[in-house]
Design a protein that fits this description.
428 residues, mainly alpha, Rubrerythrin, domain 2, Citrate Synthase, domain 1, Cytochrome p450-Terp, domain 2, 3 domains, 3-stranded antiparallel beta sheet, binds acetyl coenzyme *A
Length: 428
Amino acid sequence: MSNTAQITVDGNTYDLPLTEGSEQEKAIDIGAFRAQSGVITLDRGFKNTGSCESGITFLDGEKGILRYRGYPIEQLADDSTFLEVAHLLIYGELPGKDVLTNFESDISRHTLVNEDIKKILDGFPSNAHPMGVLSSLITAQTAFYPLSLEPNRSQEENDLSIIRLIAKMPTFAAWAFKKKMGHPVVYPSNKLNYCGNFLQMMFALPSEDYEVDPIVEKALDKLLILHADHEQNCSTSTVRIVGSSQASLWASISAGVNALWGPLHGGANQAVIEMLENIKADGGDTKKWMGKAKDKDDPFRLMGFGHRVYKNFDPRAKIIKKAADDVLDALGVVDPILDVAKGLEEEALSDQYFVDRKLYPNVDFYSGIIYRALGIPTEMFTVMFALGRLPGWIAQWKEMREKGEPIGRPRQVYTGANERDYVSLSKR
Ligand code: ACO
């Protein structure tokens, strides 16, 4: 392959270097192009723009491949644990037994949060969305760990922030839920593993002993693995771009939580369940809703369908669909919404509109059904996504900082008014 690409602008041809990834994806490096030609590239929504070179996650949207550090998602979802995957993503290799044990024990020793966090929590109205509470509590940690604001910290100091963040995230998430419920918070238990601890902080009642259901714990762990990273999506790119200003890990991750919140990204899992409930309440006529989704004058979209990069199938959706059946069976839960979802999927997969646009169920289409079966309320679904995505965000932040990437600063094509003279208020 030639290692340059040519672009001709106004009769002048410029040679631009081509770069190739380890899976042979090719890219034209346009970094110096403006300096040579005075021209920028325009790519609304970054549909065809690589913002970095990354060794963390590989995905091929045409073939439905997703790998973390080279390991297929299917194998990790079957055999690994969330904390093992977190270590893999952040540090690049599968941990040995001792390393993993130390990592898990470090995390379990940092799950407690400063008591003053409860005062911050008290300041929120009870109807606050848990995603807003979560991102606020994460940013608030900068006040408790002011040294984390220092950009040039040692690897060891950054590692401590990473451990604290992974450890405290379930506490923040569960406490955001408790706030919503108006219930007293439950403190973390270091005797339990990561998911078990989260479940007891969510569901334990002061008057009763709480036993973690192993089926629920395992299902949750699998869901977190499936969400753990997804290369340069909206929230991850946000984390990298915020971190590129040398903002702290806490500030960068909090920004990622906010980016994830929207219904076109992580908020889709909540939107899917609300949509399925609406369809059911409306009599379950899936054809009518399919019609709405296809009608360009109707803003309704089939939530949980379509993906910016997967144009064949989303490998996570395949695993989750099976897991939804397994979990509901194992827990003896009958959820009529699962039938609505399956009906919609079947229709969409054979509908020309969806076939032509390569729209398939994405990770969010069935995840909400599992969360519901596990007893997790709808408003917490995107928080669950954030909990899962955390190691990926951390890995991406760490990689970006270790590579010393420049501050993220896109350009624009200005389309506003040309220069004009200011007219004072009295003359307008
Ligand atoms: N329902 C109906 N039509 C759709 C849908 C949908 N869910 N998704 C895309 N389309 C249509 C668009 O209207 C467009 O049609 P057109 O070519 O006739 O104009 C075409 O398919 C392409 O859609 P775009 O919005 O241009 O695709 P893009 O890659 O920008 O968006 C996205 C991808 C945001 C995921 C989109 O498919 C969508 O809105 N899906 C529903 C929300 C959702 O499930 N989000 C979660 C994504 S997964 C995640 O973030 C974890």
